[in-house]
Design goal:
194 residues; mainly alpha; 74% helix; elongated
Length: 194
């Protein structure tokens, strides 16, 4: 049996992290190591050559998800309102509801991190920083974006839980309308004071 080169081992590790990131957002961190490794095309035993524990993998999967999100979210400051509106529309879309594995790590990891208070501190810190950064993308004027993010995440989680019922799309639409109108209203009031 030939040994895997360092470069190949690193590539394999990244494949496991990327797959775990997607699977954990889609199915939760309770996904078994065996199922994860099968999805990547590796044996279960190979996991422990790459990671000390599943908790280490969860940490890396969270960091990977936020890094992936950040790479897709770079927006110039002067385009903030248009970017904010696009973020709201995409976040509260049927596609995002139905594709949790490719979706936002804020909603994707929230329930698991809330249920697992013993999760490593660095995972929580990566998650906390990701939440703050996502809220900052929604900030307008004196609004720090936190309430808007809470509305988006809450609506998405509820829409996923009610998928298959017309209520699901009603929840997405209600949140989209409320957030877009509130942002427009703030912009108009700010313009009147300038």
């Amino acid at each position: 049996m030939s040994r895997v080169s360092q470069a190949q081992a690193q590539e394999n590790r990244q494949r496991v992290v990327a797959t775990a990131s997607r699977m954990f957002r889609e199915k939760g961190t309770a996904v078994s190591i065996a199922d994860l490794m099968k999805a990547v095309g590796f044996t279960h035993g190979g996991f422990y050559k790459q990671f000390a524990s599943k908790e280490d993998l969860v940490d890396e999967a969270i960091a990977h998800a936020f890094a992936e999100q950040a790479a897709h979210s770079a927006v110039a400051i002067e385009e903030h309102e248009a970017a904010r509106r696009t973020l709201i529309e995409q976040y509260l879309s049927v596609w995002h509801r139905d594709h949790a594995g490719d979706g936002c790590p804020v909603s994707g990891f929230a329930a698991d991190l809330g249920r697992e208070p013993d999760q490593a501190a660095r995972a929580h810190q990566v998650y906390i920083n990701g939440v703050r950064n996502r809220a900052a993308q929604l900030a307008t004027g004196d609004d720090d974006g936190m309430a808007q993010l809470c509305t988006m995440v809450g609506a998405l989680v509820l829409a996923r839980a009610t998928r298959g019922n017309p209520l699901s799309e009603e929840l997405l639409q209600a949140a989209r309308t409320a957030l877009i109108e509130s942002g427009t209203g703030q912009s108009e009031s700010q313009q009147r004071t300038d």
